[in-house]
Amino acid sequence: MSFLMLVDWRRVKVKPFVSNLGALRLQQESIQMPVLMDKDGLPRIVLTDPNGSSAEVLLYGGHIVSWKNQRKEELLFMSSKDNLCHLWKFSIEQAKWKQHKAIRGGISPSFARFGDVGSLEQNGMTRNRMWSLDRDPSPLPPIDNHSSVDLILKSTGVDLKKPHSFELRLRITLSAGKLILIPRVRNTDNKPFSFAFSLCNYLSVSDISEVRVEGLETLDYVDNLMNRSRFTEQADAITFDGETDRVYLHSPDKIAIIDHEKKRTFVLQKNALPDAVVWNPWNKKAKALPDLGDDDYKMMLCVNSAAIDTPILLKPCEEWKGYQELSTVSSSYCSGQLDPRRVLYGFH
Ligand SMILES: O=P(O)(O)OC[C@H]1O[C@H](O)[C@H](O)[C@@H](O)[C@@H]1O
Known about the structure:
Blueprint: E1 13-14, E2 23-28, E3 31-37, E4 43-48, E5 54-58, E6 63-68, E7 88-91, E8 96-99, E9 107-112, E10 132-133, E11 148-154, E12 166-175, E13 178-187, E14 193-204, E15 211-214, E16 220-223, E17 229-232, E18 244-248, E19 254-259, E20 264-271, E21 275-280, H1 282-288, E22 300-314, E23 319-321, E24 323-330, H2 340-345
Antiparallel strand pairs: 1-2, 2-3, 3-4, 4-5, 5-6, 7-8, 9-14, 10-11, 11-12, 12-13, 13-23, 13-24, 14-22, 15-19, 16-17, 16-18, 18-21, 19-20, 20-24, 21-22
GO biological process, one term: carbohydrate metabolic process
Protein name: glucose-6-phosphate 1-epimerase
GO molecular function, one term: glucose-6-phosphate 1-epimerase activity
């Protein structure tokens, strides 16, 4: 039985009762959250929606590692190479859990730094930390069902170098087939600080060369493959035939990711996250990434909601709140059902 409990999960009042193999219930506010201790010994929270969709969240990295629709189809990409067991190693000699690396796939918050801009580790320091259940999500209303969970990551001594002391919260909600994320950063320091933030979404697609992204046309973007030079998007939709690593600036709050083959469109809606990152490593970079299968790039596309170009400035005690909503519409051009303008602008 893979069941190991370390009761140093701050803020979590653990009432373990072993219902069956590796199952735990953690008390979160007024309800008991079903938590799986998965085969890698990582605490995994299972969210379910009455319409049958589900999501699985790891405390490790505050990472969503599965989002399934009511037909139990997985909507997120997870690397074929990234088994989670090596993520979090119990180092006997140090007698404590030793963090490892970020998970390749799913959805994860990157805080304080984006990509390799600045001095912190790539894409921030929150992806390889153990988060906790947040027992005081105010001012958000308390959750009262199994479709939502509140996570929190508090700065530790290590972080107090830069950017000071903070509380990072993430509410994850499943509702009517939508996956809603509400990230919040509170400055608990006595000095202002600024940060970059992104929600990195690895979307599962049938074939990357058949995917179109609509809603970013005519925008300026920073090309991370061209020394961060700035360009203006000329195409009326973004399609993929090679490595792509761009930050679209001041993008609209609605973006459509159209997967013809699957007759599925992801609709990404966001708020207080003005930029949109579009990333696909393609074949060479995929081979170079140790935690990504060589052909995995064909089945994934990252479209991230982000605040990068203009870092967010927070005065002491101030709190920033973002919003991201992912949903899918089943459609295709040929059926005429999908007119991106209808998805993006609600034209009839
Ligand atoms: O390998 P990671 O730290 O997860 O970063 C993966 C990718 O994240 C972002 O999309 C950046 O734009 C890319 O430059 C980076 O390669």
